[in-house]
Each structure stands twice: as structure tokens, then as C-alpha cells.
Inverse folding.
């Protein structure tokens, strides 16, 4: 196990992906952070006419919710 920040641990050799990180924010931290924009359409299977190579994911959440430092450091923010 490897610590990637305060309260965030990954398995040795695992990579930090945004999907798992968002799941962690929702389930363990109780935040309402969720993907939006083109990525949200893609996850719903509605992006067949949109760009295929999505490199940036827009996140949305509550007005007073902030991304934890580990998320910003390892996923981007």
C-alpha cells in the first residue's frame, strides 16, 4: 500500500485514475463531485458524434466543496 496524501491510499503498482478518485470522493468523502460536459455524455453513451480523444474532464460539485489536495496533486485540478 502507498499513501498518496492525507487519507488516500492506493495499492502498490496501482495507478491513480480519475474514475476511482471521483468514486472515492463521492463514497468516502461524501462529496457531490461528478463529471460533466462531454465526458458525462460519453459515460452515458451519448457522445458518438463528439470528439473521441477526451483529455480533460470537467468536474462539478457543490458551491462549498473543494477538491482534496491528494486529488489535485495526483489527478489534476
Amino acid at each position: 500500500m502507498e499513501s498518496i496524501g492525507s487519507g488516500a491510499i492506493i495499492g502498490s503498482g496501482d495507478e491513480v485514475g480519475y474514475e476511482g478518485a471521483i468514486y472515492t470522493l463521492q463514497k468516502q468523502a461524501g462529496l457531490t463531485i461528478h463529471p460533466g460536459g462531454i465526458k458525462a455524455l460519453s459515460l452515458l453513451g451519448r457522445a458518438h458524434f463528439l470528439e473521441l480523444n477526451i483529455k480533460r474532464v470537467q468536474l462539478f460539485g457543490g458551491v462549498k466543496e473543494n477538491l482534496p489536495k491528494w486529488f489535485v496533486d495526483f489527478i489534476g485540478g
About this structure: Residues 18-27 form the longest helix (10 residues). The chain has a mean pLDDT of 81.
